[in-house]
Structures are given as structure tokens and as C-alpha cells.
Known about the structure:
Chain A is α/β, with parallel strands linked by helices. Chain A folds into four domains: 6-235, Dimethylsulfoxide Reductase, domain 2 (3-Layer(aba) Sandwich), CATH 3.40.228.10; 250-273 and 286-317 and 477-539, no CATH class; 325-407 and 432-450, Rossmann fold (3-Layer(aba) Sandwich); 658-808, Barwin-like endoglucanases. Chain B is α+β, with helices and mostly antiparallel strands. Chain B has a single domain (6-234, 286-306), classed as Alpha-Beta Plaits, CATH 3.30.70.20. In chain B, the strands form four sheets. Chain B has a four-stranded mixed beta sheet. In chain B, strands 1-5-6 form a three-stranded antiparallel beta sheet, with no helix packed on it. Chain B has a two-stranded antiparallel ribbon with strand order 3-4. In chain B, helix 7 (250-258) crosses helix 8 (260-288). Chains A and B meet through helix 2, helix 20 and strand 29 of A and helix 1, strand 4 and helix 6 of B. The structure holds iron/sulfur cluster (3 copies). The site of one iron/sulfur cluster has 13 residues of chain B, from helix 2.
Amino acid sequence: xxxxxxDIKNADVILIMGGNAAEAHPCGFKWVxxxxxxxxxxxxxxxxxxxxxAAMADLYAPIRVGSDIAFLGGVINYLISHDKLQMEYIKAxxxxxxxxxxxxxxxxxxxxxxxxxxRKYDPASWGYELDKDGFAKVDPTLENPxxxxxxxxxxxxxxxxxxxxxxxxxxxxxxxxxxxxxASTATPTRxxxxxxxxxxxxxxxxxxxxxxxxxxxxxxxxxxVAGGGMNALRGxxxxxxxxxxxxxxxxxxxxxxxxxxxxxxxxxxxTRLTPKPLRPNSTxxxxxxxxxxxxxxxxxxxxxxxxxxxxxxxxxxRYDSGYDxxxxxxxxxxxxxxxxxxxxxxxxxSFPDTHKISAAxxxxxxxxxxxxxxxxxxxxxxxxxxxxxxxxEDIKTEVFRLPSTCFAEEExxxxxxxxxxxxxxxxxxPPGEAKGDPEIIGELFTRIRALYAKEGGVFPEPIRxxxxxxxxxxxxxxxxxxxEYNGRALDDIVDPKKKDTILAKKGELLGTFAHLRxxxxxxxGCWVYTGAYTEKGNMMARRDNSDPYGLGQTLNWAxxxxxxxxxxxxxxxSDAAGKPWDxxxxxxxxxxxxxxxxxxxxxxxxxxxxxxxxAFILTAEGVARLFAPTGMAEGPLPEHYEPFESPxxxxxxxxxxxxxxxxxxxxxxxxxxxxxxxxxxxPYAATSYGMTEHFHGWTKHLKGNAIIQPEQFVEVGDELAxxxxxxxxxxxxxxxxxxxxxxxxxxxxxxxxLDCGDTKVHQIxxxxxxxxxxxxxxGFSVNTLSPSVxxxxxxxxxxxxxxxxxxxx
Amino acid sequence: xxxxxxxxxxxxxxxxxxxxxxxxxLEVAKLIDVSKCIGCKACQVACSExxxxxxxxxxxxxxxxNPADLGPKTWTVMRYSEVEEKKGEEMAFEWLIRKDxxxxxxxxxxxxxxxSPGAILQYSNGIVDFIEENxxxxxxxxxGCPFNVPRISKQDSKAYKCTLCSDRVAVGLExxxxxxxxxxxxxxxxxxxxxxxxAERVVDLKERGxxxxxxYNPAGVGGxxxxxxxxxxxxxxxxxxxxxxxxxxxxxxxxxxxxxxLAMLAMGLTALTGFFHYVKVGPNDAEAxxxxxxxxxxxxxxxxxxxxxxxxxGNVNPGEQA
Lengths: 809, 322
Ligand code: SF4
Ligand code: SF4
Ligand code: SF4
């Protein structure tokens, strides 16, 4: 979230799209009801299904799965063509005035720089036109035909309401109502928040959908303000923590990156990742990359990380490509992976193409499961009839189960969607042999290190030299780990401006990442978390909810990263002169001497408005990017492409251009591509999702949850049901090119047929909670049906849009 | 439940002796704002956890309603109805979600119909409580209830329903479902405050185009201590058969009201029936079928078909609503 849960109560308009907050985030949804009850806020829900969120909405718009960019692009077009823009905000806080180089073009749905063979873009031609000092040229009048604003306007002019309706199946008048309500927030005193979740990320173009939402919000002046923002509702209670700590195959903690193969020398790596400012006064906060990286290496390798060995740079693996789940299981399927340690993950149930996952697991020599529950994955080798029809006798994989604790059986912090690190205490002892994850990893690590010490090995240093100074080496405590990611001064840290002031004494816990150094005198295991556990104590355990401004900021409740800031980009809540857009909802403003307000400024505190520093300190531009010259795999502006399996035969935005049918930069392995269905056999759009009664495959192990949603079902629109002779409660078979499932049919008016040009599209809803383990009735993994293709940037699988057939079982 | 509030009893079933008058308590009410309810069923789970009762893991019968009905171990369920209704000038599709359970009527049909002394109590705060140890399992409460709420257990032939968490309320806590509700759709307090709060909510709903928004506090049963804020208060029946004008069954009225001189005799008879029933169905019988589904009314339950009764039956196959 750029903002936070409580802040939703400050919104005037709430758009829930690509998420279903009422069902998936019932506790957070409370703030929507607050906004409705106390601010007369209006709630819009755009969703393929009439969900429980839609049941709460003032306005519901149906949409075909996977057509979100077309919809949002259409809203952008509406705003620009009806002059419903917060122009002053756009000029002050976005890259609308920046001039793009002459090489940039978009033709028939393909941007300049495309290599069709490699299915990759070279983004060089998307860059700004630079002046002699290397700064981007701007046109404050926004008239230059190559300025971002004009390019954006031209790009989305193609997304007319009629075309949107044809692609999305949304009736034109309903679509226009959404546009009008969104447009009502183009004034400085009305704000809209966007709440989204996996309904946007689970697409082959998920990152671009989110970017489209962000562009929309920037045009309306809704970023960095109270009651605004782009708010990702995270699913697992600590999935934000996972992201922050960098548990992805090419990441390091705190959004730092692992080196690539091409980073031959340390300098290559540092130069690649340390950006230069693109405007004279921009803060360019990522310019501090070396400080964060060196501090990380000091946290990990202590004295073994020296200036001479480039802070143990060579201890880090360099990657040749990402090893996301799709790739990993593809390699496993090919027999190229022998062993797999699976910690808190249930691939057989959660990853696309269940049959492929099962075949891959069967090729392993060993599988280690660290989980509190007996999951489908831990029991993949058991025959459970039609629900898991494997030949146990042929499976040679050795499975080790290491039972771990549930969250209530351990102490530590969870990072929620609001970026709050909230400390919690142990509520109960774990049962039987179960151990906490740090203890399991501690045991494994100390034994592996002992083996290296005894036997040497090829490259023992990264294991041998790892800092492991916990009091009980086999069981690091949550406090020790928290202090490690917070970081310490390894020497006295002197204020560079006032040499006689010591900011932190040697050995002290650091209060802020502003004190990090690139000379090896500081450590921080995750720089964005610095400040969470300081000399003042455990900031995450704070429970003072006083709210002096009445905006729900509660700065003394837990700890929000970064530096306890509650709303990101909060300097954008004021105009260029530092005056709040809305005097009733002040976040950060200039008081003549300093930037102050109800939040920790996302800005240099003493930066006067005249300095023109720019409110978006993380970008090299200093402003927000409507147009992204770098960073996105499939182009600088979001463009609508069809899902990899679509019920339509053409992309109505670029008809007649097969290469622009679906995301030209998304990766798909050959054997997975061969398993894509055609509309002739699989004519119906399908989407998978979670329901309020369950959490993934876990809660089916609990009686209370199993009672309130006991058995697998699929949702079918009444029109299609009638056509197919399916009655409510019948058993049906749903199949895709990869397999089939059987379940009870819930026939409903909540899934309506959509008119997409000449095709009537029926959509089928596939709640995914059941399996062959647990207390609920046995069911199939819905991922038996989903395809192995992911977002071009993140490889998050396209669980939300594929095609199926349905018939009575 | 057994009574924790012996000083606060306003009425007892099948008793002519005056009840305790020493202590007067505040009249309470639970207000369910249907327009804020997201149907998450947290209240259902909270109810089963607080009261430590869990039904069976059932099946899906083609709707979200699970368990599909109230039961001796299921005192509240969410009812989902798909309807098309007027909003402003247009017709709009709606998915109405109503938390079903005992309404804690001011004039409780169950209590009036009950022939067993002290099996049903009404406290001075308005809560209607079943005292299972006094229940003879005759099922008259089922017949007497215009909301089709009580359920007789096949396990022990006792009638069960929501207690409005009388045990929690007695010690100054709000009901478990209220405490759990994440959206604030359920609120609890004095009946007066709840009516005031409802009025505010109705203003908001009218402003959003629901011209007929209103409070459901039906006069036919003297008002209720569980009330609803409805977007369509003119048509409560679209909320999965919520009766438009619930009345206590004519038969019940006959026994206890008009024909007063005969009342004692009638009561004697009903008690006798209950006694026979007890002998016939008895605890042994229940033990013979320990595995039978716990939800739903047993075949031995006497059903009346008074005028209010018909409306009160939310017995439509939930599947038909979808
Ligand atoms: S807990 Fe509240 S919101 Fe959830 S179903 Fe019950 S009444 Fe509705
Ligand atoms: S709803 Fe039925 S059971 Fe509850 S008090 Fe009224 S009559 Fe009795
Ligand atoms: S008031 Fe108590 S008994 Fe009644 S539904 Fe709520 S939790 Fe259950």
C-alpha cells in the first residue's frame, strides 16, 4: 500500500478492482464501511463476478477477465478528453512535461525496440531527450508533441468507450458511470483510493495493470494524499514481509538486487544499480544504493566483508535468469533438479498446471517439507482416487517432513499491507515435535557449516564466514533477528555536516537508514526496516493509537517502513509551493522553515519549495512516472493484450496483428505453450479465487471453517447453465487443455454473460480452497486447469484468466 | 443455557406465578445493519466458538449458505438472496445477505406456546432464553415462533436457539457475534440507542437511492431485540423470507389469550403431550441415532400453520433462491 488500511476511511471514492476486499480482507474492509458511513464515500466495484464486495457497492461494473488495462485505459481517455484532470498536480508531481526521445514509437500494439525472436524489448528508445548535462528536457506547457502528456493522450485516445465495451463486455453506460465517479475526484479536495490484490497481479500483464491504475490516480492527483493511493491488499499476513526481505530468486533484502552474470566486476554491479539524477535537484534516493548494499554485506559477513574484497561481493551468487516457480518446476519436470526444500509453500495446490507439478515432484530424489500442516505437497505420493491419482509404488522421492509452528505459536513481527511491522507474542506452545522456522533453519545451517568445516568443499567461504552470532546458534531469537535487520553502528557515526556530532555510537542500534554508510562502518540486514528496533527499544511492539490529526495516522502504533512513514510520497499532498491541496486533510506541508505535518515527511525536511526537489524522491526524475522509460518488460505505457488463453480470437485494440494478441514480452516455455486451449474447445473464460470462509488450502484443516464452506463448487451464470442443462447443485466437470476437475455447480445471476463485440462471453468462477487433505470434503486442485505462464516482469502466474469447457458430470 | 440472571426474569413459560421483579435492567437490542454485512460468516464461527458447539461438516447444496439451515448446534446462519430491486429510478441487481437467528421478540411466540414451566424465560433486558434443563422437547416453541427459529436436537430432544449471549450480556459484555463482526454491521446496546443509530443509517441509505430503507422492528410481536436495518424495509420478504408482518400463531393466541379460562386446561394437555412425547422419543431414541445430521427439525416436531407462521417459514430450499 502507498497508504494504509486506516487511511481508507479518508477516501471520497473507493475503487475496488482486481481484488475483493470484503471477502479476502474483511477486517480491512471495515475502513470502507467507515468511509461510507462517515464521509458519504461512494464505493465502485469492477469485477468479473458480482462479489460480496460488489454487494456492498454503490456502483458495480462487470468486466471480462483479463481486460483491465482496456478498462482503465478507457477511464484515462475519458479524463483527458473531458478535461477532468488535476492539472496543477500533474505539472508539479509527474513526468508529464518530460520530453521523450525521437526513437520511441508504438505501432500495431508493439513498442519500438522489440526483438520478436527473443520476445524481448530493448528499452533504449524509450528514454528521455537529454540536455548536455545529462538531464531530461522538459516542456512545462505540456505542448511539445513528444512530451509525456501528449504521448499519453495520443496513446489512450484509442481506448474509446465503445472499444472498451467491446473488449471488456462492460455496458457503455455502466462504464461511463465509473468514469464520472472517478472524475469527481479530479479536484484537490476529493480523493479516490484504489484497492487491488491478486485480481490484478495474477495476469500475464499484471504489473502493467497496476501501472495503469497508478497513471489514473496520478492524473487525478490522488497519490501521496490522505484517502488516496494505490493500495495493494496483501494476502498472507506476512507476504509484505517476504517481499521486503527479498525472498525472490533475483532479490536481496530491502529491494536490492542480486548481481547478474553480466556484472563481471563489482563496479559493473554498482554502476548498473546506482542511478544518476535525471533532473538538477532531484533527490534520487537510490543514489544511496552502495550504502544499503555495503551495510547488508556487513550484516551478513561482518569482518569478512572488507573494502579489499569489495565487501565479499564474490560470495553472492550471480544469476543467469530468474528462478521463479514456473521455471523451477519446469527444470524439475525435466529432471534437472534433484532436491527441493519447500518451506511454507504448497506447490501441488498453489502452482499452475497441477499435473505438471505432480510429475515434477515425482522426479525428485528428495523433498523437504517445512510446514505446520500435512499438505497436498507433503502427501503428493499418496493415491487419493480421482483427487490425486498417482501410482505410489512408482514414486521414489524421499520426503522429509519437518513440522513447524503456526503464527500463534511463535513470537516475532508480521508486516501487513500497510507496511506496518507489528510485533506479536506467542499464544501457545506448538504441538508435538513442531519447531519454529528459525530453529529449523538454525539446526540445518549449523550442521551444514560443520560439514564444510570438516570436509572443506569447493567454495566454503560464503557458508563458513556467514555472521552467526546468535546466543543459541541452533535457535536464533526473534529479537536477535530483528536487531540484525535493523542494523548497528560498527564505529562511531559522525554527522557529515557537524563533525562534532556523533549520530550513533559504536555498537548502537541505528535509528534510521539515513545513518547508513558505504565505508563498512554500519550494518543493516534489510535497510528499509532500519528504525524498527532501535536503542529506544522495539518500535514494532508499540501500541499507542493516539491520533492527534484525526486522520488515522497513529505514528506511535507499531513501526511502518520506511522510517515510520505512513503514507508514501506524502509531499505530493501539497502543491509545488508546499501548500496542502486539502486544508482538511493535511499530510505534509511547508511551514516556512520546514516540511511538517501529520506524517514523517517523504522529503528532505528542510527542502524549501523553491529548490524544486521533487516529491517522488525514489525516482531519478524526482517526479512520478506516467511514462516509464525503464523498468517494465513490455513497454513504457500499459497496452491491452489478451490473456494467453482468451475466449476471443482477436485483440480488438490491434486486430490483425497476431504478435500483439497477447503480451509480446511474456515468457512461455514450449511445452507449456503446446498445452494452450483454443476457444473452439474451451470457449468459456475462467478465473480462480479465494473466498472469505477459507484461507488458501490451510483452513480446510479446521472444523469451523470446513463447516461454513465444506465442499468444492464452481460458479456458473444462469444463462450458460440453462444452455448446458445444469441445475443448481448438480455435479459438473470443468476442463481445460491441461486437465479437468469435478465439483458442485452454484448457478447464479452474479456471473452474467458479456457481449464482447461479436462474441458472447460466459465466465466461470473457480474458488480454489479444496484438496485431498484436511477436514473439508475432498476436492480437486483448481490449478489442474490453470496455465504455466506468468507476468512478464514478475512471472506471477496467470491464475485469473484462462479458458475452460463445462458440462454436466 | 441455564439462567445466570435469576433476579431479572420478566416472564417464564407455562407459569402463572409472578416473576422476580427486584431488579430492572436496561432493555437491550442487537442491531444488524444488512447494508454493512459482507456475509463473511465470522459471526457464525464466533457463535460456535463462544458457545462451544460445532455442527457437522455438510455439503454444498448450490448456494453460499452453509450450514444450509439453523440447527441445534448452529444458532445463526447467513442467508443469501439474489434479487433485482429498484435503486433510485433504475432496477439494480442485488445480493442480499441476512444474518438469521432468534429475534428475541418482545412478545415471544415460543415462550407463549411453551407448555413446560420455566423452559423459556424472558429477562427484563428483553432477551428470550431457552433453559434446556426444563425443556421437554415437545416442539411447541417451533410452532409458536413466527421466525422459524428454534430447532430440536435429535441427540437430546431439547430445543436450541441463539441466547443473545445472555451469559456474556449478564456480565456486561457484548454478544460474541457483535464482538467479532469486522465491519461493524452488528452493534449492540440499549434498544433506544440502537433505534437512534438505525435512524442515522437509514438517512445514509436513502441518500444513496434506497427510498424505502428502514428499520425492521415488527409490531406484530411487540418489537424485537434483534433488529435489522434494511435497504428495502417495504419488502422484508426479499431478504430470504423475512416475514413482512410476523404475528404469533393464532393457535398460540387461543391457548393463552382469548380463552383464558381454558388456558390452564390447555396447558395441562400440552404438558401431557410433551410428556408423551418425551416417553415416545426419549433420550434412548436419540442415542440410537447419534450420527444423524444435527440440523433441521425432527419428524416429531409439531408444526402449526397459523397465518403468521407461513410467512415466518424461511423454509424455501435455499437453492431455489439462487
Ligand atoms: S460477522 Fe458481521 S459482516 Fe460478517 S457475516 Fe456476520 S454480520 Fe455480516
Ligand atoms: S424469534 Fe422465535 S424463538 Fe426467538 S424469541 Fe421470537 S418467537 Fe421466540
Ligand atoms: S448473540 Fe450469541 S448466541 Fe446469538 S448468534 Fe450471536 S453469538 Fe450466537
